[in-house]
Amino acid sequence: MKAAVIYRPGSPEEFILKDRPIPTPAEGQILVRVKAFGLNRSELMTRKGYSPGVQFPRVLGIECVGEVESDPSGQYAKGQKVMALMGGMGRDFDGSYAEYTLLPKHLLRPFQSELPWVVLGAIPEMFQTAYGSLYPALAVQGGETLLIRGGTSSVGMLTTQLASLAGLTVLATTRNPKKESALRTNGAAHVLIDSGTLNEAVRTIYPEGVDKVLELVGTSTLRDSLRCLKPGGTGCMSGMLAESWTIPDFAPMEFIPATVRLTTYDSGQVTSPAAVFQDFIRQVETAQVKLAVSRTFTLDQIVAAHQFMDSNQGAGKIVVLP
C-alpha cells in the first residue's frame, strides 16, 4: 500500500510517499481501506512538532472514512462503510494518510450512505467538533446569540449552519474582508472583521454581550472572546488555529470575567454514537446542510495539500482521496 510517512517534524516537504506492507489486524483491531480523509490543523501542529509525545516516523491523520477490509471478530462484513476519528490516530499509532489503516474497533462508527466519498470524507472530525461544541459543551438553545471566532474554518462554517438551523443568531468572524459574503451566504447574521479585538464591535450590536462563544482561533484570542459574553454566558474553546497550546501566566480571576463560564470540547474525549453521525449524514443527503469542501487532493499530492492548509486560503474542509 501507499502511505505518506513523515520522518521528522518540519515543512510539508517532509512527507514521503512510501510503499508499505498492508498490515494484518490483531484481536480488537480492524483493517480499513481508506476512501477519503479530511485535513486538520492539529495534523499541521503534529507535522511541525508541536504535539507532545508523538514519535517519528509517523503516518499522520486523525480521521477517515472507508470500508472494512478485514475484521477478525466477524462483527463487520467486508465492505461495510465506516468512519473513525481521534483516539490516538496519527499520534499514538499510524493514522489515515494511507491506502489502508489499522484501527482499534471501538473507534469505528458504521454508516450507510450513497454520498460521494469526497463529501463523506469531510464529515467525521468537522461534524463531531461542531456538534460536540454546540450541544454537550455549550448546551445551546434556540433564540440565543452565538459568536463563532474562526468562522471561515471548516468547523466554523458547519457550526454556523447547525446553529442557524437550531434557531440561533450567529455572529461569525474572519480576518479577510473578502470572505464576508461567503460567511453571510453560509448563514451568519453578522460578520465581524477580526483585528484581534472584538469586544467593542460585538457590543455595538448586542450591548449586553452574546449568550455563547465558540472559540476556534485559540489561546491568543480567548480572553477577548470571553469579554464578548454577557453575564452568565458560556464560552467554549474547541480549536487552536493560532497553533498555541498554552496561555502564559494564566490568572483565572483576571482572565475570566465574573459569572462567565469557560469550557472546552475535545472529540478525543467525548465522541457521539453512530446514530448521531447517521442522522447528520441524512441532513446532508437531503440538502438541509451543505458541507463546505474547500479543495480536494490525492494522496500523492499530500505535500501540496499541506501547503494549501498552511496558506489559509480556503474556506472549508480540505479532503484527500487516496
Written description of the protein model:
This protein has helices at 41-48, 117-120, 124-137, 154-165, 180-185, 199-205, 222-227, 252-255, 274-285, 302-311; strands at 2-6, 15-19, 29-38, 63-70, 81-85, 100-104, 109-110, 145-149, 169-174, 190-193, 210-215, 229-237, 261-264, 293-298, 317-321. The protein is α/β, with parallel strands linked by helices and 322 residues long. Strands 3, 4, 5, 6, 7, 14 and 15 form a 7-stranded mixed sheet that branches. A 6-stranded parallel sheet has the order 10-9-8-11-12-13, with helices on both faces. It is built from 10 helices and 15 strands. The N and C termini lie close together (10 Å). Keywords: NADP, Oxidoreductase. This is Zinc-binding dehydrogenase. It holds the Pfam family ADH_N. GO terms for molecular function: NADPH binding; oxidoreductase activity, acting on NAD(P)H. Residues 10-320 form the Enoyl reductase (ER) domain.
